[in-house]
User: Fold Fructose-1,6-bisphosphatase, cytosolic from Dendrobium nobile.
Amino acid sequence: MDHAADAHRTDLMTITRFVLNEQSKHPDSKGDFSILLNNIVLGCKFVCSAVNKAGLAKLIGLAGDTNVQGEEQKKLDVLSNEVFVKALISSGRTCILVSEEDEEATFVSPPLRGKYCVVFDPLDGSSNIDCGVSIGTIFGIYLVNDLEATIDDALQPGKNMLAAGYCMYGSSCMLVLSTGNGVNGFTLDPSLGEFILTHPDIKIPKTGKIYSVNEGNAKNWDGPTAKYIENCKFPKDGSSPKSLRYVGSMVADVHRTLLYGGIFLYPADRKSPNGKLRVLYEVFPMSFLIEQAGGQAFTGKIRALDLVPKKIHERSPIFLGSYEDVEEIKELYAAAQNQN
Ligand code: AHM
Ligand code: MG
Assistant:
């Protein structure tokens, strides 16, 4: 009998056990982070179940604009936001919440106030919901030292994040997490209702064969972006062209980039000089994960995690992925800068 394989099947590393193990490395830890993460995991499980039922619910009239009682049914992104906000507040460990769905930040009052600031996009890629394409939740966690938290505590550079992750609702439900010590992937076993460690210590390949961008915006790109994409398609060094893959769901596109390598970009263009993606809960958590996996994340000017946002819903261009692929685009921007 293969004891190693058998141990792997029977000795299940759940995400809770994993985080508790990590916690035991910090003897002064009181378990607050584990409790917070448990509540995030609960939110992810709820959204996963709601996303799985969405197509069916529509068919039998449970979702949509109104149900048989004439009550308005909540859209999945609104519902997901409510679930996360409530789960985070009730954890008793948060002081500030910034959600893509809410214009203003939420400040948690005593007795539920804790020391973590959580920034999140409860259901990203929501234009993909109705056709059953992968969507996801993205989150980042900061520690707030001062008990009197202000909005400035949420406007910290991404490099100050304590942890970041995403949950992808795709052909399987996967939670990818970094607590600043590498990246680990957990897959939801629906029969157990538990996330099990399936992708330990994810490392992004040094270079990849895929580029991922909305090429429909090409007409408005700046020089370095246009040149980079041209080179993906018609490499000057005689290598094979890269393949294009673009889901249009950041979680799915970044997940593929993390596992297979390559580059994901949402650049600035003449119509959107700051790109489309949001700094706090899209750019930062994904950049944190990519760096932790050995890749790079760049804004077109600086390392993405060095950005200091001025507003909670600020946007930034982003180029992230395999170390060498991002290095190439950095060189193109540096060359353009030198010409000016
Ligand atoms: P959303 O937050 O409104 O869902 O928009 C974010 C999504 C990302 O998931 C994805 O990377 C991007 O928008 C795709 O944008 P586009 O359709 O412009 O290519
Ligand atoms: Mg979003």
User: Anything to note?
Assistant: The CA atoms of residues 96 and 107 lie 5 Å apart. Confidence is low (pLDDT under 50) at residues 59-64. The two ends are 67 Å apart (CA to CA). The helical segments are 3-10, 15-24, 32-59, 76-90, 223-233, 250-260, 279-292, 323-339.
